Amino acid sequence: MSLLNATGIVKDFQGHRALDHVTIEVPRGSIYGLLGPNGAGKTTLLRIINQITAPDEGAILFHDHPITPEDVSRIGYLPEERGLYKKMKVGEQALYLAQLKGLSRGEAMTRLKEWFHKFELYGWWNKKVEELSKGMQQKVQFITTVIHEPELLIFDEPFSGFDPINVNLLKEEILAFKEKGSTIIFSTHNMASVEELCDHITLINKAESILHGEINSIKERYKSNQYQILFEGNPKKIEEQLSSRFKILEISENGNGKQVILQIPEGDNSNRLIGELLPLVTIKSFQEILPSMNDIFIKVVNDAS
Amino acid sequence: MNKVPLIIQREYLTRVRKKSFIIMSILGPFIFAAYVLIPMALATMEDKEIRTVAVIDDSRMFTSYTAEGPASVIPDREYIKFKILQDMKVEDLQDHFEETGYYALLFIPENIFASETSIIYSTKQTSIDVTEYIERAIEKEMENLKLAKHEIENIDQILQEVKTDVRVRNIKWTKEGESQETNTGVVMGVGYLAGLMIFFFIFFFGSQVMRGVIEEKISRIIEIIVSSVKPFQLMMGKIIGVGLTGLTQFIIWIVFSLILIVGIKTVAFPELNQTPTEKAVASELFEEGGNIAENAGQITQEAAFAEDIFNSLGNIDLAVMIGSFLFFFLFGYLLYAAMFAVIGSAVDNETDTQQFMWPVMLPLILAIYVMISAMQNPDGPLPFWFSMIPFTSPVVMMVRIPFGVPWWEVIVSGVLLIITFIGMTWVAGKIYRTGILMYGKKTTYRELWKWLRY
Q1: In terms of DSSP bridges, do strands B63-66 and A247-254 run parallel, antiparallel, or are they unpaired?
Q2: What ipTM does the predicted assembly reach?
Q3: Which end of chain A, N or C, is more open, meaning fewer C-beta atoms within 10 Å of its C-beta?
Q4: Are residues A187 and A271 in the same domain?
Q5: Which residue of A has its CA nearest to B434?
Q6: Distance of alpha carbon A65 from alpha carbon B140, whole angstroms
Q7: CATH number (domain holding residue A258)
Q8: Is residue A244 part of a domain?
Q9: Could you tell me if A126 and A240 lie in one domain?
Q10: Neighbours of B175 (CB within 10 A)
Q11: When comparing pLDDT for A250 and B12, which is higher?
């Protein structure tokens, strides 16, 4: 069940290829991360999905039909280069943008008032945008992106330029929209937020999609069977007894106690390891070490080049 | 749903509510009215200071001896008086002229008939008005004296009878054989005004379109908007919105200016507003009174002149004039506004616009030059071709139309303009949609060409 399919998207700019047969499939109700280094082609892909630029090859399907200009009222887009008319009054501007998204004036007014109250902006309705702080302008931008309650929300680098308080607010709202059934695509190179929010990702590097899938399965794919054990007892015993069967990566002692990190060889499993450990030391905690998205990102990008 | 009306509405309302728009709307008519009225006021306003010119008349031909003593032959005028100084020399006054209080000293030498020269001495530069008056008075007096030498009988009466003032009327024969009174000056004026208005409108509001596009780029709202509407819709909405703003301003200006000019004229220059009865009376006086009413004669001439203007205005085909003015006004603006929008999309700030401005401005300025030559010779090859080329035709054709242009020329010029407008807007839309998303680097013409082909 996918809401949006982009298949075989190619986009050439004079002299260089910005997207080379990129395919993404965004499941309905998911949060989809578009990752990649700067200049990889993320923004171009998002612009194509938003019908701001046309692809040279490939097709965008929205609800399984080729996307049409009428669909923009079901999509909300917060671009990376974003701003507002500085000389225009805040409320009036929000009304204008909401109406451009297809809302009637009355409906837009009702919804905007709710949002403005929620974000503590109501007193600023008749102020000019240039009188607002950056943080408040960001809130207004967010409101105008979601005001028409679109099925598909697209954020390009949403957290860049936002202060930490607004970043949290934004994350909460993104999750709330997911709860309500919206599908969300966002591009970022902030890996912490990817891990926190995303269900699926596609990693684009140099115009090509080099990794995609569910975030958990990607982590599974890139894990190296490493385990971290906190224990009480003599570290020497572990070293003597286990080093022949498992690869010991690290034994250390710090304020939290003693810990060992080791790798299980292919074909072996963690129960075996626990069995071996039981007679030697007292286990306090036992945990598989999964690679962070950051590690995967760096590894995949480096391998690709 | 069509969003263009929404965009037009925003562009229009934000501009019309701007302080600068309101100020310009109020000040414009005053500036315009001042432009018309100040020369008028200056013409009627005379220097009210009474100036006395001392005269040393060595020729003795400019002095008449009356019971009250010697008087100047040169008649006094309202604000210029003449006083004959007898038995004085120029040198007597030279050192302390300022203390005497005279405005100037007129010296008429003994041999004035031979030399045909006299001299005005003064400490300050004498005004042209005074100098010309004295010159004419001396000339006239000398002519009279020369005539008198011939001893013709009734010379005064003959002179009065000989005096003539001729007015040349222009009458144009239409193809249908009708006669129409025209006044070349009026026809030129109407064309000039129409052409100039189109020029200013294009330039002023075209660059507002450009600034609007730059504003959207600088404030980074452009991508938010083009995710809701097509770039082409945004461009056209802006062009139409700004055009309507301009139209509103022009209408305000014209209406206010007319009110102001008519109002001030009625209050300050009542003599220019004679009723038809007054005119009739004046002309009757002139015909019956024969040698009396110099004054009335002058009024009749003024009245005839005014009538002439109205006749000429009436004989310019008003429907054709207004219709073609609106057409060339509209499409001229639309054609150039699209180009200005492209410039706006290609740059990041207003200072970078220079390199793209001149190719757009060049034909406009050329049009103004051709316009002036078209007023002399409206059917010459230069005005003809420039009224066909779409980039100059809105201005040049408007100058030619009051003189009468074959209808097929207007149609061809109009069709060419529409075709060019459509083509230019299509090209502009293509460059614009790429340009608005480009930031950072300076754009070159080669890049514009590339964007066109994306």
Answers
A1: unpaired
A2: 0.82
A3: N
A4: no
A5: A53
A6: 98
A7: 3.30.70.260
A8: yes
A9: no
A10: 6
A11: B12
Integer Cα distance of B168 and B35 in angstroms: 29
A273 Rama class: left (phi>0) / alpha (psi -120 to 50) / beta: alpha
Cross-chain Cβ contact A100/B228 below 8 Å: yes
Nearest-angstrom CA–CA distance, A181 and A1: 13
Q: Are residues A8 and A126 in the same domain?
A: yes
The C-alpha angle B237, B243, B249, rounded to 5 degrees, equals: 140
Contact residues for A237 (Cβ-Cβ < 8 A; gap 6+): A280, A281
- Strand, helix or coil for residue A143: helix
A139 and A239 assigned to the same domain: no
Task: For residues B279 and B287, give the distance between their C-alpha atoms in angstroms, rounded to a whole number.
Answer: 12
Element (H, E) at B69: strand B69-72
Domain definitions of chain B by residue range: 4-40+185-453, 51-157
> How many residues can be counted in chain A?
305
If you ran DSSP here, which 8-state letter would residue B66 be given?
E
- Pair (A209, A247) in one structural domain: no
In this complex, the residue of B1, B222, B231 whose CB is nearest that of residue A102 is B1
Same domain, A17 and A68: yes
Q: Indicate whether A66 belongs to any domain.
A: yes
The C-alpha atoms of residue B27 and residue B121 are separated, in whole angstroms, by: 46
CA-closest candidate to residue B432, choices B351, B341, B347, B364: B341
Would you say residue A303 lies in a domain?
Answer: no
Q: Which chain B positions have a beta carbon within 8 Å of A13's beta carbon?
A: 454
A211 and A231 assigned to the same domain: no
At A4 the three-state DSSP class reads strand
Domain that holds residue A125: 2-219
Instruction: Flag the least confident range among A34-48, A261-275, B163-177, B408-422.
Output: B163-177
Q: DSSP 3-state assignment of A45?
A: helix
- Comparing A121-125, B24-28, B50-54, B175-179, the range with the smallest average pLDDT is B175-179
Q: Output Rg (C-alpha) for chain B, integer angstroms.
A: 32
**What is the fold, at CATH topology level, of the domain defined by B51-157?**
D-Maltodextrin-Binding Protein; domain 2 (3.40.190)
Which one-letter DSSP state was computed for residue A122?
G
Please enumerate in sequence order all residues whose Cβ is within 8 A of that of B248, keeping only pairs 6 or more positions apart, or say none: B12, B16
The beta-strand segments (E) located in chain A are 2-13, 16-27, 31-35, 57-62, 65-66, 75-78, 152-156, 183-188, 200-205, 208-214, 226-232, 247-254, 257-263, 282-289
Number of domains in chain A: 2
**Domain match, A170 and A90 both:** yes
Residue in chain B nearest A92 by alpha carbon: B10
Q: Are A251 and A279 in contact (CB under 8 A)?
A: no
Mean pLDDT of chain A: 88
Find the closest chain B residue to A81 by CA distance.
B220
Cα dihedral angle (B346, B348, B349, B352), rounded to 10 degrees? -50
Domain boundary among A166, A189, A219: A219
Closest in A52, A69, A83 to B220, CB measured: A83
Length of chain B: 454
* Model confidence band, residue A169 (pLDDT cutoffs 50, 70, 90): confident
Distance CA(B337)–CA(B347), nearest Å, equals 16
At B446, is the pLDDT very low, low, confident or very high (cuts 50, 70, 90)?
confident
User: Which residue out of A100, A141, A185 would a mutagenesis test of the B interface target, given it has the greatest number of B Cβ atoms within 10 Å?
Assistant: A100
Q: Do A79 and B223 make contact, defined as CB atoms within 8 angstroms?
A: yes
- End of a domain among A169, A204, A219? A219
The domain that holds A97 is classified in CATH as: 3.40.50.300
Tell me the C-alpha distance between A296 and A45, whole Å: 22
